[in-house]
């Protein structure tokens, strides 16, 4: 914690400078074709974006395109709460190396890893300042040398280690995948991380087959919905899905055979009631004690697939207690236990697979085929503007979503902005009220504490007095004994 | 160790009585068909079998068939060396419960678990006295009630938790599998444990696919050869196989792409030279430090499958040091490590799957299909008579086999027996010589030890003298300080 929340404004300005020097214009342009001018939308946004205040004003004299080219980007400015992700304006056209493409982003996907990253709990995101985001969709705007399988105008979905939450991204063309006919940009941004994760877990590690049973935690989340749909592509698979009761109708319609309200029920008991022998596959995004429970629910030849530690997330900022507890309870297993149980324990995280182009390609091809056959279809929970990224993250972290949360690069309309501003004001007011309440409560608590302390002191004094009495007596006894 | 090797002869007689009372004739006969009389072979053997000396002579008066029915059985009489498995004669026709069949056994398979069991290292074998053995082949001699899919005369292979090393076995019919056309009894006894183990590991836990790479330890052993053949049923799979150099030609012909002599080379280095990124699947029957090495050789999405602790076996009897070392070095893994590496660790042992009829059936069906297609074929290393079980176990434990070691229930011919007896005599002589040598060496060692001890004592005395001097000086210093 400590200095992380310190003077964010000054920090930003400096960080942004660093950011800019990080991407020097090595090879200014690989395309001779003129680039479209920055959309009015993005310049408009530039003027109003929160962080834009720190950005030096564009040079008045006519500058080369590399300098006039600007685009909006979300930037994680330091680890902490929702407000650590700021909307900034980046200047200068990014250079394209051989094999790379530039994509004008339409939509971006939100993932649990992004929430972890903001708290400093995800080591695959470079240090701040950095643009988060592992997936997006958009249109190819320029292609670098030696790129033969993509052309300007191609609609693509993009999967990358980070940097997807901005209007313009430059990535290796191997990180882009052509969007199938009829797929919306929202769907395209919702698909890569969740569906590849669910696919590789269920079919590579899990080797899911007909008549098997699967436990899907957070069944209304992005991976949860993807996993449920993929389970349904195999005959007679029973899906146990945990989610709060209000989401049960939707996840049942989506294919969950037995929805379990983990808030009011013990999911282990619920599973055992229906499937006394246990489960073939447990997908575990929670970590900590839930991994132990999942392991103990496995049938012979069962597979536990751990793919996160969502239990570490408690509150906006890094909660050291939750982290320590989850870490302390983290599951570790001995091969002899695995042998005697005929069990498998697997770990999966797409973020650590970013260089495995072939594996990703295989999974993506399979998922796209299923999409074309109508067997899988991302469910969009909600779409937020870049300016609203804080609200988007809050919705995900508080687990209010059913399906994927999307960010759109489409600029907010003026009236929307005004509404946002109002809401912000209200929030501030609420916060003030809250703070006042908190202050009042603190004062009260303090008074109570002090009263209690006084009481305790009194008690302590009494006890000590008692002890002294006792000691005195003991001494007397000793003296007696010695005398005897 | 301790009392385990104690008076084996007396123990046997008592144990055998217990054994007999364990199988009461609940339902004497479920078949009205007369049973074949005990073969002359088995009565002949009964007269000469080592352990038969303790068996009470058959009653002279005419007894019911249940009593005249005898058959030879190998019995583990206590934990320890090769001689703990004795050939005995069992009396009385075993009763058949509903759903069971009686099989006249032709051949039995030897497995690593049998070696572990003899040393008391395998908890799936009931306590001695007990007949070991997990697999055999033979002909159905009687069927119990409600058995509809087997009939007298069917040639079958049998897979069971224990009790397969005897001439007659009674098992649930679900533990028998019809032998395909053209399969020999040797092959049938060699197939169940090794091929089901290799199949389930490679295709269920391993999810083996084209172009992948697999490390097979003990590639000339039963599971090793089965695994190699199964790898070859998938396109372009690279097999790394460890075995001593003398076996390389055979295993190469069998499909091992890169044989590695683990006695003279570091297999980790050898694998890395050829496959710098590592391996997709590691089959690990060794345990201990080799599991760590295997884990570190995994590629992303790689699977380590641990299926034994052969490193615990060192010498004939339980070697506490080897057991402790293997146990101490036994691999344990944390889910966070699995997540960051995108890895899977699995444990497999068929002995713990004996109630999973459906899983076993699926694997067996698949293996039988491959056999019929000529894609797999057990390789028989050697066949021993029941009387030679000690030699058979020794051959396996000393890793001199290439392929499966089989026990046949066919009785030994008279001349073979004489030869065996001669060999035994020679062995005893050798043992005496060895013992004398050992004694001499012990005496010498004792002398050396004593001399060393004397030296040490002298040194210790000198050191203590030095220490005393030092203390004296320190005291002087202290006194000085105090004086100052």
Automatic annotation (TrEMBL), chains A, B:
Q: Which superkingdom is the protein from?
A: Eukaryota
Q: Which SMART domains match?
A: PKS_ER
MF GO annotations:
oxidoreductase activity; zinc ion binding
Q: Per the record, where are the segments of Low complexity compositional bias?
A: 1-13, 40-61
Biased composition regions of type Basic and acidic residues, renumbered to the chain: 411-484
Q: Which residues form the Enoyl reductase (ER) domain?
A: 80-407
UniProt-listed PROSITE patterns? QOR_ZETA_CRYSTAL
- Name it: Synaptic vesicle membrane protein VAT-1 homolog
């Amino acid at each position: 914690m400590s200095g992380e929340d310190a003077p964010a404004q000054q920090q930003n300005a400096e960080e942004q400078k660093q950011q800019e020097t990080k991407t020097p214009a090595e090879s200014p342009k690989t395309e001779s074709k003129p680039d479209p001018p920055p959309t009015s939308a993005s310049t408009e946004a530039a003027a109003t974006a929160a962080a834009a205040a720190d950005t030096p004003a564009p040079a008045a004299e006519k500058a080369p395109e590399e300098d006039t080219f600007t685009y909006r980007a979300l930037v994680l400015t330091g680890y902490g709460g929702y407000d650590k992700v700021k909307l900034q304006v980046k200047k200068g056209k990014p250079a394209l190396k051989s094999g790379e493409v530039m994509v004008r982003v339409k939509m971006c996907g939100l993932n649990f890893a992004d929430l972890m990253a903001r708290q400093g709990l995800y080591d695959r995101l470079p240090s701040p300042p950095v643009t988060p985001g592992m997936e997006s969709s958009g249109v190819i705007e320029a292609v670098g040398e030696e790129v033969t399988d993509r052309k300007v105008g191609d609609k693509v979905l993009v999967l990358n280690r980070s940097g997807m939450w901005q209007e313009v991204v430059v990535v290796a063309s191997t990180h882009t995948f052509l969007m199938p006919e009829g797929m919306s940009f929202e769907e395209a941004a919702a698909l890569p991380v969740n569906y590849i994760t669910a696919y590789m877990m269920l079919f590579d590690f899990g080797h899911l087959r007909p008549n098997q049973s699967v436990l899907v935690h957070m069944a209304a989340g992005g991976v949860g919905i993807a996993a449920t749909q993929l389970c349904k592509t195999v005959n007679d698979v029973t899906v146990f899905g945990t989610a709060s009761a209000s989401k049960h109708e939707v996840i049942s319609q989506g294919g969950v055979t037995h929805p379990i309200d983990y808030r009011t029920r013990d999911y282990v008991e619920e599973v055992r009631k229906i499937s006394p022998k246990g489960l073939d596959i447990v997908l575990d995004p929670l970590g900590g004690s839930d991994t132990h429970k999942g392991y103990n629910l496995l049938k012979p030849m069962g597979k536990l697939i751990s793919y996160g530690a969502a239990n570490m997330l408690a509150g906006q900022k890094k909660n050291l207690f939750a982290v320590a507890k989850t870490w302390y309870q983290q599951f570790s297993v001995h091969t002899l236990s695995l042998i005697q149980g005929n069990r498998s324990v697997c770990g999966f995280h797409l973020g650590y697979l970013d260089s495995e182009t072939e594996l990703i390609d295989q999974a993506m091809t399979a998922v796209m085929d299923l999409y074309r056959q109508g067997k899988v279809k991302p469910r969009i929970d909600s779409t937020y503007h870049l300016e609203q990224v804080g609200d988007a993250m809050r919705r995900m972290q508080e687990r209010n979503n059913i399906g994927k949360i999307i960010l759109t690069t489409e600029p907010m309309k003026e009236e929307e902005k005004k509404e946002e501003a109002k809401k912000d004001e209200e929030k501030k007011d609420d916060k003030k009220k809250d703070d006042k309440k908190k202050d009042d409560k603190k004062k009260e608590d303090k008074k109570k504490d002090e009263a209690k302390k006084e009481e305790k002191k009194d008690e302590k004094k009494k006890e000590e007095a008692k002890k002294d009495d006792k000691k005195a007596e003991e001494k007397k006894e000793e003296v007696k004994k010695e005398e005897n």
